[in-house]
Amino acid sequence: METNNTKAIFISIAITIVALMLIEGVAHIILSQVYDRKFDSSLIESNKYGISSGLKSNATGMVWGRPFHTDDMGGRKQSKSKKGKPKLLVIGDSVTEGVGVDDSATFANIFNNSIGFDEWDIRNISLIGWSCSDYRNVVDQVVGGDSTIKSICLFYCLNDIYGKTPVKDLPPIADKGFMSKVNTFLQAKYATYKLIKLLVYLGSDHYYQYDQAFYRDTNKVKVVISDLLHIKSVCDSNKVAFTVFILPYRTQLYHRDNNLPQRILAAEFSKNDIRYLDLLAGWPYKRSYEDLYLFADEIHLSAAGHRVIPDAIYQK
Fold first, then answer.
1. Contacts of 292 (CB under 8 A, 6+ apart)
2. Does residue 129 share a domain with residue 5?
């Protein structure tokens, strides 16, 4: 009898282990489809714009699970070439670069294919990780040296306020004690744990609340405005139009009066004569906005989200 019980226990343990392995395998597959965050580093050219890196010209790679191609300038490749026409540069971070969507799905490519932009050669030279100091370096390097650049559209993500602050010096987004270390370990090692955590935090405004806090730091806001004023000055000197577009976070679309960063930026932009457009104010209303952003993501747009950007601009 004891032998039979021991055998039953071993069988139960074996079945449990196999089941857990199967679940872990399925979680890996699901994550690879909906939450692939790998960036092909071979696409990066160090110090392309002064001390800021950029994308290599005519390169091919994979970014967040999608094929990624660049043009002769090192911008995200557009489906329609308009060489010889005045250039309109689109500058931003990973949101504007269009991580997680195909080349043809980015809002920059949508604008480039629009009838209203037939006379513009739109180049999306954005890069993941950029912030205002990088935008400044880019403009210093390209404006003036290329007389065909006639307009710059800077798409500002609210986390651009981090600037060049090293990650280790940023305030912790969560407790950095023992449990935080355990959490980091489990996320790195077990796909099942990571997927469950993403599902638990789905729809959370955790990241927005974290980033919003930076706008209460007047010194950080001053640095942002200083960089943008420098860009405006360079553009004005070279007769290049300059406009800033403020991108919204997903949770702000549900609670549009939760817009402290936008209000602070708008006041500073107006005071300093920086032309801007707050896309939160013009974003079309709908019941749910989850499909407009990547899975469990607060800021990165899906292909459907990129298609809304023109509507948000024109409605405003």
1. 250, 253, 301, 302, 304, 305, 308
2. no
Q: Is residue 192 part of a domain?
A: no
Instruction: State the distance between the two ends of the chain, measured CA to CA, in whole angstroms.
Output: 78
Alpha carbons 88 and 125: distance in angstroms, whole number: 10
Task: Kindly give the confidence (pLDDT) of every residue in the chain, 316 residues in length, as a single tens digit, with 9 standing for 90 and above.
Answer: 556 778 788 888 888 888 778 877 876 787 777 788 899 999 999 999 999 999 999 999 999 999 999 999 999 999 998 989 999 999 999 999 999 999 999 999 999 999 889 999 999 999 999 999 999 999 999 998 899 999 999 999 999 998 776 655 556 655 566 666 776 777 777 767 776 776 777 777 888 999 999 999 999 999 999 999 999 999 999 999 999 999 999 999 999 999 999 999 999 999 999 999 999 999 999 999 999 999 989 999 999 999 999 989 976 5
What CATH number is attached to the domain comprising 158?
Answer: 3.40.50.1110
